Amino acid sequence: MNFKLKIKEEKNSFEKENKVVWQSPSNIALIKYWGKKEKQIPQNASVSFTLSESYTETEIVYSKKESNNKIEIKFLFEEKDNELFEKKIVKFLNYVLKYFPFLTKLNLTIKSKNSFPHSAGIASSASSMSALALCLCSIEKKHYDSLKTNDTFYRKASFIARLGSGSAARSVFPFAASWGKHADLYNSSNKFASILPFNLHENFKSYNDAILIISKKEKQVSSTAGHNLMKNHPFAKQRYKLANKKLQILLNALQNGDLDGFIEVVEDEALTLHSLMMSSNPGFILIEPNTLAVIEKIRNYRKINNSKLCFTLDAGPNIHLLYPDNEEDSVFEFIKNDLQNYCENRFWISDKIGKGPFEINKQNA
Ligand code: DP6
Prior knowledge:
Layout: E1 18-31, E2 36-37, E3 41-42, E4 46-64, E5 72-77, E6 80-81, H1 83-95, E7 106-114, H2 125-143, H3 150-164, E8 176-179, E9 193-195, H4 202-205, E10 208-212, H5 223-229, H6 236-256, H7 259-278, H8 289-305, E11 310-313, E12 319-323, H9 328-337, E13 348-352, E14 358-359
Parallel strand pairs: 5-7
Antiparallel strand pairs: 1-4, 1-14, 2-3, 4-7, 4-8, 5-6, 8-9, 10-12, 10-13, 11-12
Helix pairs in contact: 2-3, 6-7
Bound molecules: ligand DP6.
């Protein structure tokens, strides 16, 4: 599939000022993307749950300008100028210009805000890059005779989001998405993500994710730097092979409602991710003492209460507590009476599996 916009003729002119707005969620990987080739081509396939409460809302107001072959934007993050983010976005838009050649014809005002506090230690690249990619695809769809089917629209959005941040590719799909070529996933691709090719078992349809913010500190090692350290990692080859095998086990669990199988593979994968970080050269440690204390508590709680609560981690110290709907009340109690004490400022976010991104305002500005 070629994502370049080849149509020259506009269906609707850019004369009038116009606006597109998308809300797009974050996602939590169950099988992790860790290690990549150029341009976010993943070394192994990954699978994630799309979240619902942690999201970015991005708006682009655009109007025609004299084309000067330059991308010019004004960017506001949470209503304020933000030069650092603005520079990053200009760089990204130049990078994807060949897919959206109309961008140099437009004055663009981009406003973005997150549903979660910026310094909460939650990675925002998946939600923000997917929201931006969806806005760009909406502009293309509005003004050109392309991206007419949902398939082509979301596929291009996922492809563009990936060029911004790999994990963002998965955020454009509802419930659970996979990304990366895998023998068990018909039509899977390294270039864009897809919704899982089967219905999630009832057990997982409204799974919960309580995000325990163990630390709000900025990461000392960015994901991009971490991915790069996989290049000379002594366990890399074995890791990629194993990840694809674990993905197969996870798919079975998700399809058959096997909660114990799910717990085993998801916790193993979270700890594998961090063991890869620790055994890189140089190695680094992102988990904190409280992360380990909470993991131990979760495992004890599961045993004592015959619970299906489990955890996963992303590239940081925070814990994602995954659990089925029927345990909501008891897990809330557990968090409030115990786990919350291990969170920075007792802060945690109650999230759950979600329906994916949506366009907020289809009206013209
Ligand atoms: C541990 O997508 O943030 O969350 O492609 O360099 O932007 P870049 O990396 P990023 O890496 C995410 C790593 C992870 C695992 C995952 O989400 O699959």
